[in-house]
Amino acid sequence: MMTIKLADFGGETPLEQLRNALAGLREHPGATLTIPPGVYLLGDDAAARLQQEVMTGKYSDNPHMTMFNRRFVYTSALDFSGLCDVTIDAEGAVFLIDGMMCTLELGNCSGVTVRGLTIDMRRRAYSQGRIVRCDADSFDVRFVEREWISAQMPAPRMCIFEQGCSRLLGVLNAELRSEARKELLDEQTVRFFRAVDPAWEEQDIYVCHTWHSCPAVRIYQSSGITLEGVRIHSHGGMGIVGHRSRDITLRHCMVVPAPGKAVSTNTDATHFASCQGLLRCEHCFFEGHGDDAINVHGYYQTVTGRQDGGYLLRVNVLTSIHSLRMDHPDVGDTVEFVRRKNLAAAGRYRVTAVRLDPEQGQCVVELDRPLPDDCIGEFLCDITQLPRFEFIGCHVGNHVARGVMLRTRGALIEGCSFDGSSGVAIQISVECFWNESAASEDVVVRNNRMVRCGFMESPRTSGIAVLVGADELPDRPVHRRIVLEDNLIACVPGCKAIRATFAEDITIRNNRTDGEIVTDNCVNLILA
């Protein structure tokens, strides 16, 4: 195997040199690029300008509505497009991002391995401070940072941690179109005009300045991607996003705060949508992220009309799906027709033709037989684009939302620990809001440890929740063949240990817990 060195390539800046090295790799399939240890400041004028615009309030107190859509322009630091069977050996290398950008863009490539890289930000995507005063109507925060501390800086999410030990205590989320009032008291102190728990005075607070934006690593329409020993310390969106890709492995990866900090990514640590093959996450470590540790799902495509012998489809989300790319079925895929009111499957079809309309974010599909006459407004769910999922020996802790959010066919979650997730440790569910599918089948959750989870979010469940988030109660089971066994679940007071609803052929046995196991509308239940 050929090895080439970063030093073999020139460039006026580290970013230019790295881009030249990637161009060199395209000429040498099967080669390994070695990047020596050190800190590489990756600066881009557009990315730096975007972060400044965000921090000075150009996109409101919650930039989500403006920035989180596929038409918004982001910079990609390193574009791997077209690379085949190459390895990036970057053990000890730190990419320090100056601005808001996607760091690694792995689109339309195959057989790519990235090893040992650390990603961080020069000015991180949050501001750290301490609550120095609070009353019924407002609270004051004295920040560590000085750069961009102002009454205009956005504050869509604030995470409160116990002083010193960095244990998550609570979260404050702004409205989607927030214009929350703030006042600058001095160069490092801001007054926020909203109520907080008086017990949070003198506790640490992290003000995250965005919700979703572009991810740190985006894997799109690629196959055979391996991230090994990759670390992400901060990003203004998700850490790793995979979409419409096949066979992805995360091995010994970490999405964790920088040393001495408590927050890592502003939203999900990892997120995988409409993937195929095997998605395997082994011996990874996730802490301090602002949403789920890992979310695995497909999409509900809404049937919006008939057109030229086919059916017009689109994913009806408020802003964008998380890759900021278009989702669609492919020819030959199997899709389920799903009734929106109860998310119950009502037939399978095969896709025979697809016509894309990227400008409008929609497509027309032809099927092997007609849909029901009343199909408009209902869902199609592509069950071909669902991966087999393995989450093995991983640790998830001290973060917002769920540990694992699962919606796929064929999954094993084994030997993992979950400690201090504000939501349930493992959620197996479908729902309408994000149009994330599908109902899960053939899932095994065993030999996991779940402690102090579910202390903040509904449903009040610490360990495992099997749920259906439909507009109406289903008239039949939705999830099938679920095994929950040999798990240790230490419940938060007021939380259930396991909550299972609308599942068929579900086995719950040999779990050690101090909490209650609740089942509802389950068929062929084994509870031992």
Level-2 CATH architecture of the largest domain: 3 Solenoid
CATH first level of the largest domain: which class?
Answer: Mainly Beta
Estimate the strand proportion. Answer: over 45%
Total E-strand runs: 48
CATH topology-level fold name of the largest domain: Pectate Lyase C-like
The end-to-end distance, rounded to whole angstroms, is 54 Å
Roughly how much helix do the residues carry, as a percent range?
under 10%
Tell me the strand order in the biggest sheet.
1-2-5-8-18-21-24-32-35-39-42-45-48
Computed CA radius of gyration, to the nearest angstrom: 23 Å
State the low-pLDDT regions, or none.
Answer: none
| Overall mean pLDDT | 95
The biggest beta sheet reads: 13 strands, parallel
Q: Which of globular, elongated, flat, extended, rod-shaped describes the shape?
A: globular
Q: By helix and strand content, what is the structural category?
A: mainly beta
Please count the helical segments.
3
What is the total number of structural domains? 4
